[in-house]
Amino acid sequence: MSAVFTDAPIEIETNPQPTASVIWLHGLGADGNDFVPVVRELDLPNGLGIRFIFPHAPMRPVTVNGGYVMRAWYDIAPAPLGYWQDRTQIDESATYLDGLVSREVERGIDSTCIVLAGFSQGGTVALQTGLACHRKLAGLLILSAPVLHAADLVAARCPANAATAIFLAHGTADNVVPFPIGERTQALLKDGGWPVSWHRYEGMPHSVNAEEIMEISRWLREVFRHCAGATLLSA
């Protein structure tokens, strides 16, 4: 059964006239509020006006949690290589995310000033959506995501984003999405020719830490450099 995306995303603007957008997907069982506090922690320059958008996944039964109904971008279950992931539901969530990209373009944000971000299964959806997007994006921010299949990445490839910057990060102590999955994703993307900035965080569990947030801040400044002009360059 198809999910219904009915809840309006949370939006935070760092100044009244944003010239860039970050659409950030939460992980399993969380909601759009999960990464709202990170906006302040990123400590971005005032000259870089960003609209942060935090969507809410729909409620659905999740196999890995015994069929309990919770917010999830797709159903997921244990498998020999890590996880089975519902391909149809990933595609539904990707279609929803692509619609949010279109909405930002309609609101006056150039697609080259849009970053798709996601944590855990939100990162899987963000990566699949971004690689397949027919509009050139600023970058993809993928954190602790259970990406497994080379075929999915190759099938998602679109020339518009063949050279789009990818920030890929994973903690070595992740006991939810084991670190080797992140390493495998990094290798798949590198072998596929995508420009990946790979970040491993020693001892970090399935979460984010201060070092990671600081590096995300630097990366956002770089991929949005062309979106803010001289104000950002002097910040």
Describe the protein in words.
By secondary structure, the protein is an alpha/beta fold. It has one domain (10-233): Rossmann fold (3-Layer(aba) Sandwich), CATH 3.40.50. Helix content is 34%, strand content 23%. It has eight helices and eleven strands. The strands form three sheets. A seven-stranded mixed beta sheet has the order 1-3-2-8-9-10-11, sandwiched between helices. Helix 2 crosses helix 3 (121-132) and helix 3 (121-132) runs parallel beside helix 4 (150-156).
Instruction: Report the average pLDDT across residues.
Output: 92
The number of distinct β-strands equals 11
Low-confidence residue ranges? 230-235
Structural class: alpha/beta
Number of helices: 8
Query: CATH superfamily membership, which one?
Result: Alpha/Beta hydrolase fold, catalytic domain
Silhouette: globular
**What is the number of domains?**
1
Rg, alpha carbons: 17 Å
Tell me about the biggest sheet?
Answer: 7 strands, mixed
CATH class: Alpha Beta
Give the amount of beta strand, in percent: 15-25%
